Amino acid sequence: MVATPNLMTGLVNGLLSVKPLANYAKQKARKMMIDRAAVIGVSWQGMVDDLRSQDLEAKRAKVENPQLDYPEYYIRPFHAYSDGNLGWDAATEVEVAAYAVHSRVWGDTNAKGDALLRQSYHDLVQAKVQTPQDILDLGCSVGMSTLALAEIYPEAKITGLDLSPYFLAIADCNISKSLKNINLIHSAAEATGLPDQSFDLVSIFLVCHELPQTATLEILAEAKRLLRPQGHLAIMDMNPNSEIYAKMPPYILTLLKSTEPYLDQYFSLDLEQAIAKSGFKNIVITANSPRHRTVIAEVA
Predict the structure, then answer these.
(1) FRET label pair with 79: which of 59, 164, 258, 264, CA 20 to 30 Å apart?
(2) Helices (H), the chain
(3) Contact by Cβ (8 Å): 140, 160
(4) What percent of the chain has pLDDT over 90?
């Protein structure tokens, strides 16, 4: 388990503490994703250019809450972007990056890797949660996870919430094309401002590994507040217990951690215990891919 302090983890963290080496690792990680996109037949630049051709600033103005104060943990570099999630470079590359990163989840490089990963999550969620009326997608990013929820629960009212107005602008573009009726909110997942007990399902897809532990705990408490009695929390994220991470070569681990500043905190968090302490019961954890796990819990 990568979370356990050991010589390799210390070595990697030491390398990343040297700024030129950290910057080099970030750029190598980025190039690896772009090259992999080409292998699976996805045009990285083509997808970005298509999004850039739209009036993104108008979309941002439509969704942005100018009064929002960003938490300190969010205002820092993420995923090789110096402005983190608060810029157009990150926002326009989220979807193509997901296709590239997830193409190797199941072993051999596969253009359908991202779709298979999402389907593995939704199959588990649908087995537990049949007919939710109101669904909240916390950390919805550019709307990929939100649109997927709208597909599997077509009768539900869907809300997507994210801290980045740039991501939400892209989400608005994607949702407009789909003709789905989805509400987008620019807010923090740990302090949404939404009413108590207003949702039947809160979904958190690939968010927790990008958070410090304090933020994750606050988000779990907020999810508990937002859920109705018998409501469900569903989380899909990296699986710290996966042998893939335990056996990951130092070079690859360095590239991964160079783009994920809170990875050590995520891997060392006892998520099941944290969910239980937040007021949930019937917690079920399932490995839904060789690298990922799904956690589903019910309001206690």
Answers:
(1) 59
(2) 7-16, 19-39, 44-52, 56-63, 88-101, 113-128, 144-152, 165-178, 213-226, 243-246, 250-258, 263-268, 271-277
(3) yes
(4) 76
Whole-angstrom Cα Rg for the chain: 18
Other CB atoms within a 10 A radius of the CB of residue 300 amount to 12
Identify whether the C-beta of residue 105 lies closer than 8 Å to the C-beta of residue 292: yes
d(CA 238, CA 253): 14
The HSE-up count of residue 65 (CA atoms within 13 Å, CB side) is 15
| Largest separation between any pair of C-alpha atoms in the chain | 51
Q: Which residues contact 136 (CB under 8 A, 6 or more apart)?
A: 159, 161, 192, 194, 199, 201, 202, 203, 226
Picking from 27, 16, 69, 74, the residue whose alpha carbon sits closest to that of residue 214 is 74
Give the pair of three-digit tokens for residue 195: 């009413």
Q: In terms of Cα–Cα distance, which of 129, 167, 127 is closest to 145? A: 167
Domains annotated on the chain, with CATH:
7-299 (3.40.50.150)
CB 188 within 8 A of CB 71: yes
Amino acid at 246: A
End-to-end CA distance of the chain: give it in Å, rounded: 30
pTM of the model: 0.90
pLDDT tens for residues 186-201?
A: 999 999 999 999 999 9
Q: For residue range 226-252, list pLDDT tens digits in order.
A: 999 999 999 999 999 999 988 887 767
**Helix or strand holding residue 231 (H, E):** strand 227-238
Phi (first) and psi of residue 79, to 5 degrees = 50, 40
201-232 tens-digit pLDDT: 999 999 999 999 999 999 999 999 999 999 99
Q: Residues 75, 86: contact at Cβ < 8 Å?
A: yes
